[in-house]
Amino acid sequence: MKKKDNLFFLTIEALHRSGALDELILIGSWCHYFYRGYFNDAPEIPAVRTLDIDFLVPNPRNIKKTINIPKILESLGFDRMQNSMTGYTKYVHPELEVEFLTPDLGRGHGSKPYEIPELHINAQGLRYLNLFKGHITTVKYRTSEVRLPEPAAYVLHKFIVFERRAKKEKMKRDLKAAKDIGEFLLKDAKQRAQLKTIFAELPKKWQKTIINNLKKHSTTLYNFFINNKT
User: How buried is residue 18: exposed, middle or buried, by Cβ count under 10 Å (0-12/13-18/19+)?
Assistant: First the structure.
């Protein structure tokens, strides 16, 4: 196992022991590790695991307990780095970086980070993260329980946001992951139903973006949604 894999799992276990993992949802390509396990090591699930660990803080206002996440990360060798222009903070290790995200509430918040004093962190607000609301699954890893998006929600979110990636390499990687996982999910009746259900709940504008991107990048998924309109 690579060093970054070891550090990833040490980070997960440390956050679990502190109780912080109860307030976080793992998003991004590290979800692939758990999706692969769930689907019996299916080769269609990309094994890409990047240098970034992205955690979603879904409900900052509902956090009741106080946990010093920076202290936990520093004990694992992460350094705190703050962008002097935006005030946004991430945690950097030679092998991995940890970032915290939260749904963008809009209303003039602009590019300022969202302060989450209970966890001693701030988080970057991004659009479309509310797509995961109500579509979270929990998986076990050793003694830890990790929350992550249901695979269908993960795929639909990627087909909305991949074009927003600043770096072309990351955009291509996200698109390939969404396409490969999405087409794999069509083989399973339960996952097909989840794709339909979650898609139907989305705002029409989001649906249109997904359909347009599917038309360009996945004929298989495009035909599925076109033929299953409700």
Answer: middle
